[in-house]
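Marked as duplicate of an earlier ticket. Keeping the data here for the record.
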Amino acid sequence: MTETAAATTPPVRTPIHLWIVGVLALLWNSVGAFDYLATQLPIQSYLDQFTPEQLEYFLAFPTWMVAAWAIGVWSAVAGSVGLLLRKKWAVGAFGLGLAGLLVSSIYNFGLSDGAAVMGTAGVVFTGVIWIIAILLLVYARRQTVAGVLR
């Protein structure tokens, strides 16, 4: 497409589903950001919900694991904001968030006893996080291809 044709092509309207998905994604990923902050700061009223074994596990994360967790969480928040701003960099942010999730999942389920410490509910919840993270990446990519994210 020539520069003139691109200039005369009307912008793609923002579909209502973008706002719905964007707001829900931001709310969802804000919960993850709060979990990260409450654990790292630490906020005692939040930490009181965990067993002593879980607390010992979380607070003993190696630095690289905490970094992967931070990258995963904050990239997902950034991706959600990118959706709402209609920016195509949301795809990269969600991809980086998935990379952080991958590294932290490898640690939690392969390099440590995270599955035993977190229990069935923790393992299932991690699966839900994976599904939503993948769906958000696919959604952002499709909206980029459709010209909604620029």
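See parent ticket for discussion. Residues 114-145 form the longest helix (32 residues).
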